[in-house]
Amino acid sequence: MSSKTKIIVLHMKEVVYTILFLILAILFGVLLFFMFGSGKNQAQSGKASKYTPGIYRSSISLNGNTFDMEVSLDADRIASIDLVNLSESTKAAFPLMKPALESLAAQIYQSQSLENITYPDDQKYTSQLLLSSIKSAIEKGTVY
Length: 144
Prior knowledge:
Blueprint: H1 12-36, H2 38-46, E1 54-62, E2 65-73, E3 78-84, H3 88-93, H4 97-111, H5 124-141
Helix pairs in contact: 1-2, 4-5
Keywords: Membrane, Transmembrane, Transmembrane helix
Protein name: FMN-binding protein
């Protein structure tokens, strides 16, 4: 019986390079999994949008003067509220319009809701009219 011993010669440099290459390939695979894996899509799809993003308007008519309430909505928040097409004569006839809207808008931005909005007694009817118009515009962009 003759047994021949076989000797395998490995160069240390080649072994080290191979191990480093395998480690980098595994790290790259893990990175790709976390970046494009299904976990990210499930987290995003589980969150439902509150609004359809866009700009929505509702009309207000006072003593023959018509102007619009413009509400800008993002997917989950009220971004801006403004009066548009407000003529100078309407501004002069109804001077509480802008201050009342600024007060209401500040409260709405903070709470992101039309609930529990307060307004002074001297701006009661103006504020109610504006709130009604804001609500109408927001309902146009609300996702049900």
